Amino acid sequence: MPKVNINVPSKYSAQETFEKVKKFFNDPGELKKYDSEMNCIFNDAQMSGKAKGSKFSADLQVNNAGDASSVNVIIDLPLLLGAFKGQIKSTVEKKLGHLLS
After folding, report:
1. How far, in Å, CA of 53 to CA of 64, rounded?
2. Which of 25, 34, 68, 84 is in the most buried spot, having the most CB atoms within 10 Å?
3. Where do the structural domains in the chain lie, given as residue ranges?
4. Around Cβ 5, how many Cβ atoms within 10 Å?
5. How far apart are CA 95 and CA 8, in angstroms?
């Protein structure tokens, strides 16, 4: 399976960033429009989560960076979507960047 690695800086604290990312992943108007079967499980203590659907899966981790933070997302794509790897990476980076800037 092709993997997409995304790292997006955030101006918010790690906890604020994690809350924003959780809301983004649970919003039916965002990622769920690409895969309506997507479900997310979050670990609040470790500020991490997993998203799994019928078309892709993803692991995310929010990391502390002083007064700011960053989000690392690794998306596993099926072979059929491998050709769209760059477009998917760009779209997720853009949406998270807008959310966290």
Report:
1. 28
2. 25
3. 3-92
4. 9
5. 10
Residue range 10-34, pLDDT digits in tens: 999 999 999 999 998 888 676 667 7
* Predicted pLDDT at 10: 96
Nearest to 60, CA basis, from 36, 69, 68, 87: 69
Residue in 78, 28, 19 with CA at minimum distance from that of residue 49: 19
Q: What is the DSSP letter of 23?
A: H
**The residue to which tokens 């050709």 are assigned:** 83
Q: How far apart are CA 89 and CA 93, in angstroms?
A: 6
The candidate with the shortest Cα–Cα distance to 13, out of 100, 77, 87, is 100
CATH 3.30.310.220 fits 3-92, yes or no: yes
